[in-house]
Amino acid sequence: MPFSVRSTPAAIDAVVAIDGKDYALRVNRPVKLDPTAPRLVVVAHQETPIATELLRVCIDAIQRFTPEPHELWVVDNNSPLDSAEKLLDEPDVNVILNRTEPLPVEARATDCHPDSPAKQLRWGSYANAIGLELALRCIDPLSACLMTMHMDVMPCRRGWLTFLRSKLDDGAAAAGVRLDRTRTPEGVLHVLGYMVDYQVFRGLGLDFFPELPAYDVGDLVTVRLRRAGHRVFACRNTLWEPELAATLPDYPPLRDFPVDRSLDDDGNPIFLHLGRGVRRARGEPVKGVDVQDWIRFAREHLLK
Q: The domain containing residue 111 runs over which residues?
């Protein structure tokens, strides 16, 4: 692994320094494939039992709909230990257990918790970035491509990974399931689900850190790729084009399920996103589909 291992307790495999802070990790890597296999990275935080179920259906959907060779990495970002350690029993999942709370520089001088929505956004975005940065220290540096994912997503059709990978082969440096148009006129790929040419990423010295309020976690990857002359690809999706839902007559459950649905070039739904999944799992009031309904939909229509 491309990081320095320091003297650590027996339960800790390594200590990694990122952004001036040491992160104590436990790393379990049962799956080791050739660098050509995509690395899929899910950043997770399991504060509640419902959050653990949310992560479970994400993992199950990836495994169900991704027959192509790949390494699935789950980065657990300092969840309660009993929930986090259960991931170590997954035979087909590479796991990074981060046992250090990710806090931005301005929050490290105190033990306070976020007390405003703006601070919660900042801390949450920073924690997500740290999770992805930890994965970068653990995956093979020669990996051809890296896919970032949130724990409230589900692939829903076989071939989704090959489809996104084909866009990289077609000349794009990154391919995502959704273009976020809220921060720049041309839009940026949303970190909830995008694949990037990892050798281009490394060659340009990119990272996933946010620069709020202008850019959220992972946004600057798109910005800097474009500045370097690279093209990016984004799927059409029902968040920005809600009329697309009516074009899915052969998929009644997906047509009528009001979440973000991303489509391939033939109009097939390939990827679903709940949105605000961690906040919903905490019981915070968020408009849209309930976490329990998301889990029920997955088990009744996708995973049975």
A: 14-302
CA atoms within 13 A on the CB side of 54: 31
Q: What total of structural domains would you count in the chain?
A: 1
Neighbours of 202 (CB within 10 A): 15
Residues constituting the chain: 304
pLDDT in tens, 68-126: 999 999 999 999 999 999 999 999 999 999 999 998 877 666 555 655 555 556 788 99
Question: Is the separation of the CB atoms in 99 and 22 below 8 Å?
Answer: no
Quick check: is 118 in a domain? yes
SS percent in the chain: helix, strand, coil, step 5: 35, 25, 45
Position 5 in a domain: no
Dihedrals phi, psi of 159, to nearest 5 degrees:
100, -5
- Tell whether the model's pLDDT for residue 8 goes beyond 80: no
Q: Is residue 3 part of a domain?
A: no
Domain with residue 175: its CATH number is 3.90.550.10
More confident: 93 or 288: 93
